[in-house]
Amino acid sequence: MPSPELLARLGELSDLQHAGQVLAWDQQVVMPPEGGAARGQALGAIQSLVHDRLVDPQLSVLLDAERADTQLVRAVRRDHDVARRVPGELAAEMARAGSEGYEIWLRARQANDFAVFEPALRRNIELARRYAECFPKAAHPYDPLLDRYEPGTTTAEVSALLARVRDGLVPLLAEIAAEPEPPALSGEVPIAGQREVGLLIVRAMGFEDGAWRLDDAVHPFAAAPSQRDVRITSRFEDSSLMGLFALMHEVGHGLYEYGVDPDLARTTLDSGVSLGVHESQSRLWENLVGRSEAFWSYWLPTLQEHLPGAFADVDVPTFLRMINVVRPTLIRVEADELTYSLHVILRFELELALIDGTLDPGDLPQAWAAKYADMLGIEVPDDLNGVLQDIHWSEGIIGYFPTYAIGNVLAAQLWSALRTDLPALDDDLRAGDYGDLRAWLVDKVHRHGRRLTPAELIQQAVGGPLDPAPMLEHLGAKYRALYGLT
Predict the structure, then answer these.
(1) Chain centroid to CA 18: how far?
(2) Under DSSP, is residue 223 helix (H, G, I), strand (E, B) or coil?
(3) Are 278 and 253 within 8 A, CB to CB?
(4) Residue 130 clears pLDDT 80, i.e. is over it
(5) What pLDDT is recorded for position 224?
(6) Which architecture does CATH list for 156-482?
């Protein structure tokens, strides 16, 4: 058992991080626009306090005094060692720049003008480079940025993984693109009805009332200041069901935090181990569960009850074709299950170029358009539907994008493993029962928090390292069947 003094220090760190999450959530959900400057200062102050406590030499003394090299000691020592390399003022400036950049990004989106956002982007790229310089032994300047979100993973490893993903997806996309498209969703799907169905699905997925809330946000996200305080956001539209799938996606994130072992509370280990693992949970619920025949065999009648005008005469096979249309699109969060990783890969390539200096931030819109034309074969009409669509760079979140593709890869590996362990899974889904599925995910992934490294958790959960083969096999089988290909 860690010493009371060490636990007290970790509790204080957790409390500060809790406060920072609430402030960040509030900024994106309910804060009035004019509060941005002050919020940036507040978030910077919180980050300074977190940094000061992480680099405090007394923390190292307390860690050294622990007799056992426990998982907690190992994880906190890593946090301590990383933080010691980064000046406190740089950490605070990055937090301030991220908060201020978010407000500028919102104005740029309203104006549909990248030029409004460019100075904030340039500032965040420069800060990211300064952060990377704090780790001179890194093999690539992107490595320290990636490590913030996917600990222990290198640029070389991600590049090799994404190359395999791209090489598998591009010919499959070409094969499908040659076929006629199945019927797409048409007509209005009122937001109120979608929200009602969404709330029913969320409760069935496993949240208890009183431990979570749902709000709207420009860019859907989930936050969990604590295990019993999970904040879900979505963005519903009356022309599509994307908000419903975004809700299931974010609930997948929330269920991860909700399922962490309560004994890890206020130890700094009570959160997801990496964003790739986190994304595996959201993509598993959104796509592998939420776009399946078994899932909609149960939920389509409920959808028809709440949205009778749109789906009154639609059967399950037709509905599945509607929600699984494959076609290149401009917006990442609206991309289908197959093309989504291609959106991620092109952003990863742009980030690498921004960090190594081969791409100037001012030239990003042109580079973005060229990538979309080359990889997805579509023309970018404006900044709003192009380079201004994602929130990440506005907040200085650089190194995050590859974790989306890692999540897709891992989700398919987990799905393969759990289907072996749960042979009645399809029957459960058709009955609207997610108890065994949720328990499996809690046991294999959620409960561990940050006790295991990402590599350890993946090895333990699926019996091997990251491997895109199950994802490519799943996508090939599913979409060849939907499109009638042999």
Answers:
(1) 19
(2) strand
(3) yes
(4) yes
(5) 95
(6) Orthogonal Bundle (1.10)
Q: Round to whole Å and give the CA distance between 94 and 355.
A: 15
* Residues forming beta bridges with residue 212, ordered by sequence position: 230
Is 250 catalytic? The answer is: yes
Q: Which amino acid is at 435?
A: G
In this predicted structure, which of 24-28, 284-288, 456-460, 482-486 has the lowest mean pLDDT?
482-486
Contact 405, 344 (CB under 8 A): yes
> Which residue from 197, 449, 415, 239 is spatially nearest to 331, judged by alpha carbons?
239
Q: How confident is the model at residue 186 (pLDDT cuts 50, 70, 90)?
A: low
Catalytic position from the list 118, 250, 349, 395: 250
Distance from C-alpha of 359 to C-alpha of 389, rounded to nearest angstrom: 19
- Is the CB of residue 48 less than 8 Å from the CB of residue 99? no
Whole-number CA gyration radius for the chain: 22
What is the β-pairing status of strands 212-216 and 229-234?
Answer: parallel
CA 9-10-15 angle, to 5 degrees, is: 100
Closest CA to 284 of 194, 162, 419, 165: 419
> So where are the chain's domains?
4-139, 156-482
Among 463, 459, 464, 434, smallest CA distance to 448 is for 459
* The overall pTM is greater than 0.90: yes
